[in-house]
Amino acid sequence: MLTNFLLPENRAHGSYSAMSAWMSFFHRQPLVFLPDVTSMVSAAAMSGSGNLMDFLDEPFPDVGTYEDFHTIDWLREKSRDTDRHRKITSKSKESVWEFIKSLLDAWSGWVVMLLIGLLAGTLAGVIDLAVDWMTDLKEGVCLSAFWYSHEQCCWTSNETTFEDRDKCPLWQKWSELLVNQSEGASAYILNYLMYILWALLFAFLAVSLVRVFAPYACGSGIPEIKTILSGFIIRGYLGKWTLLIKTVTLVLVVSSGLSLGKEGPLVHVACCCGNFFSSLFSKYSKNEGKRREVLSAAAAAGVSVAFGAPIGGVLFSLEEVSYYFPLKTLWRSFFAALVAAFTLRSINPFGNSRLVLFYVEYHTPWYMAELFPFILLGVFGGLWGTLFIRCNIAWCRRRKTTKLGKYPVLEVIVVTAITAIIAYPNPYTRQSTSELISELFNDCGALESSQLCDYINDPNMTRPVDDIPDRPAGVGVYTAMWQLALALVFKIVITIFTFGMKIPSGLFIPSMAVGAMAGRMVGIGVEQLAYHHHDWIIFRNWCRPGADCVTPGLYAMVGAAACLGGVTRMTVSLVVIMFELTGGLEYIVPLMAAAVTSKWVADAFGKEGIYEAHIHLNGYPFLDVKDEFTHRTLATDVMRPRRGEPPLSVLTQDSMTVEDVETLIKETDYNGFPVVVSRDSERLIGFAQRRELILAIKNARQRQEGIVSNSIMYFTEEPPELPANSPHPLKLRRILNLSPFTVTDHTPMETVVDIFRKLGLRQCLVTRSGRLLGIITKKDVLRHMAQMANQDPESIMFN
């Protein structure tokens, strides 16, 4: 049973309409205790609406804000926004100017989305162009313009032929430029050394900039973004310095050749843009709940420009990162993703009039018999995801708990050196990971010069260019298979040690590369099996001799989706991102089969994706909506104080002095205090936040005459009876939450967890017949869930 104890003239949480609107947004499924909640808010409605922070005639500064590493109060933020909107609506009828201001307020959300899309798209385009140039800089330089990449340099040359399109006089490797040699052992060794030196320089610059200017610019950013969107405060994580340093260092680390991608960090960059623009509008800057609506849309814009997938970006924000996603946020996310994709398309960083580098067009349909290898790739993706998560978390935990974590620069330099030394001899690890995936996805046409397309052609073949039949593999294909196998093992191992270092590091592209390499090898195997054994029963019905039956690039695409799904546990958004990424709309069924299989297999070994695992590793207070709690414990088993602990620290309604309260605040670190009638009765009155008590007392001392340490502090409507010579009392009723959420001591924890998850509570009070027994905070809930799952409850470090 959910109960609430209210007094008349409740000014804490607004009216019934505000609460009902909030709950209709937040509840994705009905709760069994809604009637009691309705009675609570109905009682609140009787009291009218008031200003939560107005303890004097005017609000004093900083009330309503939150301290660093604390959770916001979703209900209060929603109530404040409802009050603000009601005030604007009532004022709009007074004059034309107020009506115009109300229109500007209504349109401010769309303006913020427009600005986010423009800046996120521009930054993504600049990053793509810079990465393209700096990646090629490791191998050589353009003589006509040093800022040209290899491809751009050869575009501008009039001496480039189609057969030798990768070779042109204007582009010179470092051996040609320094010692005037292009072939031979000395030229190879010099190019090898220059490749390693450039990689080390880029990595050193990146880790140094992050360490000195913006420590929050490291990592993927998605685990922290998920935590922030759930209501957690991390000051500076979305700041201007973080935006600047992450943008610059992202170019450096991707260009260094490390096994990481830019897609995850681009979500962080886009959310930094969203935080910057939301600070320009008071509607969002003064309300943490509204700010998170903007950040959800910004995350969608980030995925939109990372993959050129605006619809997939919206679904990614909904499925993977957002905690509170009302319908209007869906529309605005779609608009922000649209603007961001349009801006990136206008910049055209890849020079192919596409949003992405991987765009492919296959000319052969898939057949039902191929579902079996597609499902096998899904199994591989699930196993790879499980292996990666367990190994990477174990390594990151070792980094946090040993001396290894004290030397982040050295770690980055060592991993970069090992990566560059091993990567250079193999052409599939030397090139950028995005180019590798693009090559693996491509279908082998008549004009392809890749080793993967070195098939033995029939000299009598007279078929259209787009309809080349299956052919026996040549020497180049077998060589490429060995190189891909070695590259696959190398990528699997090195990515485990790379992700989580103190540099920007995304996981999408390395995961896709692992799956694409495995998929391409499986695809070539199936293709050769079908060519040499077309009379087998599994091939007889759909693969006739001389037909183009199997597309190895499709297997690479399915493998990439399977591995990415195994690591992140995405399903719907993953499939949409993949078909937007490649243009392969008719291959949705293979992608769906692989994504679902990889999730099933990975979930069999553990429910956590890589981002949830890192959230738990860092001890963030993230209450995942996907988690299930089925244990038969009660609120009394979790509440504090427990047996043997000191009694609960409380405030009385009219008998404590200012000095008593200041002493209590100084001696404890609690976020707030229940207010009771007296210590004898323990009858609950309300709840006062620690930060607002501190600010109220400080402000009262400065602005109210007669407030001294011996002043009685009271939370009632009328002051208590005091002797004639007593100092002036301090009334703090306006900062008191008169309708705190309460549960009885016999409420099942399954219900309590549901309340915390769906209403975003910071704490709820435990009572019996109106008498206060204890308190349950979000940290208590998370620690209890960890304990029930046989995990370390002390790993939850924040509230």
Automatic annotation (TrEMBL):
SMART domains: CBS. InterPro entries: CBS_dom, CBS_dom_sf, Cl-channel_core, Cl_channel-4, ClC. It is found in: Endosome membrane; Membrane. It holds the Pfam family CBS. The keyword Repeat applies. It is a multi-pass membrane protein. Keywords: Antiport, ATP-binding, CBS domain, Chloride, Endosome, Ion transport, Membrane, Nucleotide-binding, Repeat, Transmembrane, Transmembrane helix, Transport. Belongs to the chloride channel (TC 2.A.49) family. This is Chloride channel protein. The lineage of its organism: Eukaryota, Metazoa, Chordata, Craniata, Vertebrata. The gene is CLCN4.
